[in-house]
Amino acid sequence: MARGFGRDMRLVKIVETGSGPGGMLYACGDCRGSHSLPVLDEEAAATSPTRCT
Questions:
Q1: Residue closest to 4 by CA, chosen among 22, 23, 28
Q2: In a domain, 16, yes or no
Q3: What is the domain range of residue 25?
Q4: Between the CA of residue 52 and those of 7, 26, 49, what are the distances in Å?
Q5: 36: left (phi > 0), else alpha (psi -120 to 50), else beta?
Q6: What are the tens digits of pLDDT across the range 4-53?
Q7: Considering its fold, how many domains does the chain have in total?
Q8: Residue 18, domain member (yes or no)
Q9: Rounded Cα distance, 40 and 53, in Å
Q10: Could you tell me which of 4, 30, 26 has the C-alpha nearest to residue 14?
Q11: What is the pTM for the complete model shown?
């Protein structure tokens, strides 16, 4: 696993906290492939409800 600068960085997770600022986690293409990390936009589209209740 390489650390440092990466190419093709994509948002993979938003960390929400009860108080204070949350955070965002990014991963490069190699790490996303190695750890089966979905890009957030693809994951959100697959799990979003079709209508509000």
A1: 28
A2: yes
A3: 10-47
A4: 37, 29, 7
A5: left
A6: 777 888 888 888 877 878 788 888 888 899 999 998 875 554 454 444 33
A7: 1
A8: yes
A9: 23
A10: 26
A11: 0.61
Q: Is 47:19 a contact under the CB 8 Å cutoff?
A: no
For the chain, give the secondary structure using H, E and C. Answer: CCCCCCCCCEEEEEECCCCCCCEEEEECHHHHHHHCCCCHHHHHHHHCCCCCC
AA identity, residue 10: R
Q: Which two tokens stand for residue 27?
A: 């991963």
Of the CA atoms within 13 Å of residue 33, those in its CB half-sphere come to 5
Please count the other Cβ atoms lying within 10 Å of the Cβ belonging to residue 27.
20
Asked if residue 3 is part of any domain, the answer here is: no
User: Residue 40: phi, psi to the nearest 5?
Assistant: -55, -45
